[in-house]
Structures are given as C-alpha cells and as structure tokens.
Amino acid sequence: MSSSIDSVNPWLVAVVLNTILLGLAWIAPKKLLTPAGLFHAWFLAILIWVTLGWQGYAVVMFYFLVGSGVTRIGMAQKEAEGIAEKRSGARGPENVWGSALTGALCALGVGIINSGFLVPNPQSLILNTSASLSTSLQSLLLLAYVASFSTKLADTTASEVGKAYGKSTFLITTLQPVPRGTEGAVSLEGTLAGIVASVAIAFVGWGVGLIDLLGVVWCVLAAFIATNLESVIGATLQSKYTWLTNEVVNIFNTLIGAIASVLLAWTWITFIN
C-alpha cells in the first residue's frame, strides 16, 4: 500500500486528502478545531505529508485524535471548577503551533535533507555507519520529531487526567498540596497517564518505521524529562512573564523533549562506540 501511495505526487495527495478532511471537520457537529485552527492544521498536515509521508502523518494524527480525546475527559466537572481548556477544548492556531512547531521544524529539516537542496549527498550526513538507526542527522531529526509529539501528548494527557482524576495534586517545586489545575501541579494519576501516552505514540513512531525500538526508549524518557521541566516552568516563571503563555510554554516543552531525545541517543551512541 505504501509504495502505491508514495508513487503519487505527494503534494497532490496531501492537498486532496487534507482538503477532504478539512471539509468533514468543518461540517462535523463536534468541533475539535476552531475555523482558523482548521486552516492552520490543514497547512501543517500538508507539510508533514510532503516531508515525512504517511508515516509522519500517522504520528501527528495520533497525537491530534488522542490529545483531543483526553482533553474532553471529565469536561463537565472541569468546566464547573473553571479548569477546563477554553472553547471546550477546540484548538485554535495558537494551540496547533504551540503543540506542533517543533515537530514541523524537524519534518522540514528532513525534507530539506531528502531534497538534496543544501546537501547534494545525504549519505555524507551519516555520523557513524556502524551504529544503529539513530546515527544519521536525518534519523536524529526523525527521533526528535516523534519525541516532540510524545512529549506533548504526555503533557496533555498528564494535565487533563490529573485535573479530572487526580486525588492529590502537588506543586512540583515544593511538593505542597495545591488545587487541581494549578500551574506546575502534578499528580500520580496524571503522571502515570502521561507515561502511558508517551509510550503509545512512541510505538506508533516505531510501528511506521520512523524510529527503532531504542528510539522508543529515548522518546519516553525525553517526554518524562520535558513534561516535568514544563511543570517547573509553570510553577516558577509562567506567572511572572505575560509573554510566557501556555502556547509558548508548549513550544519550550516540545523543544526540550526533542533535544533531550537527541542528547540521549547521542550519548548512547558515544558510549557504545
């Protein structure tokens, strides 16, 4: 199936597929995206398909569908407590790029490498041909791509499950009990749910061939590191700077996850060699 899809002009497939999906989402009674969010997601989806094919598309769609689903967990209760996502969880452009900017840049990097525009011979970017899948710049970018969405899904799931089901919520910097929904708050229920989510999407990345099994480990570890650092940022800095919105924090969160996965892979490659 993949070979027949790949033989068709990727731009044509991307535009037709995502225009159809945009139309379906537009008329759907339950809105997962605002009108502006739909068009930004349309552009993002085309970029991902053209640069990473259906494999990269599968990862971002898994994130979007599962992330949108967990946002609606306990929605009535969260709205009553004033801790629900705005617009009943419908994503706007700021949410699209807050979640996916890092991944989009990784995908763009892979696309540039594959095009040969800047590097005529992509094989020259191999860092160590005797090591595993994670040894080329392209493979590291693919790892960072999957890790960015593993991180964001872990963060979203941990936050939403924690707000809905967290029995005891603590501020990550002091471990003092705080109300659910407090910036920088963590719970056991949310943390475990976030780990499960990061494992699930990392295995999607592995299943479609973007990363190897070791890459799954790096993605899960990176997501755990980044999600907790995001909580620290929320507890210490977010209230002090007006420009540090949730969307900006999300960009930092996914960027930390992507960089952490690359550093973990790089350290491992260095160690075994």
What proportion of the residues is helical, as a percent range? 55-70%
Shape: globular
* Strand line-up of the largest beta sheet: 1-2
How many strands, what sense, and barrel or not for the largest sheet?
2 strands, antiparallel
Number of helices: 9
Overview of the molecule:
The protein has a two-stranded antiparallel sheet. The two termini are 38 Å apart. It has helices spanning 2-6, 10-27, 35-71, 75-81, 93-115, 137-165, 188-207, 213-236, 246-272, and strands at 169-171, 185-187. The chain is mainly alpha-helical. The relative contact order is 0.12.
How would you summarize this macromolecular structure in one to three sentences?
The protein has helices spanning 2-6, 10-27, 35-71, 75-81, 93-115, 137-165, 188-207, 213-236, 246-272; strands at 169-171, 185-187.
